[in-house]
Amino acid sequence: MEEAIAAVEAAAARRAPPVCPLCDRPIPPDAKSSRHHLTPRLKGGTHKGTVRLHQICHSAIHARFSETELAKRLADVESLKADPEIAAFVDWVRTKRPGFHAPTRMTKERRASRKPRD
């Protein structure tokens, strides 16, 4: 299955670069990118659909929200774009070149809300 997905993505990349549905910038072949499960796998989203995002966009989502939040209220691109924190991030990242990447840190609020592991 993974090989088939890779083959389809490679063929699509030869035609035109995909566009990140979060920031609406093209994703060049040499840019860091990844697939985002719209419903997190841990919440039953293994076969519910994915979207290709710039890695920085994908990291921004997971730095701000828990799997539960993503599953309950942010399980589609429109909901993500409507969130004020993501909207502010998108406004900022849209000014960057399509291949731009920078490390992303988890927000203080998200870090504080995480349960300590035993």
TrEMBL record:
Biased composition (Basic residues): 34-50
Keywords per UniProt: Endonuclease, Hydrolase, Nuclease
Hydrolase listed as a keyword: yes
A GO MF term: endonuclease activity
Stretches for region Disordered: 25-50, 98-118
Nuclease among keywords: yes
Protein name: Restriction endonuclease
Organism annotation: Devosia soli
Lineage per the UniProt record: Bacteria, Pseudomonadati, Pseudomonadota, Alphaproteobacteria, Hyphomicrobiales
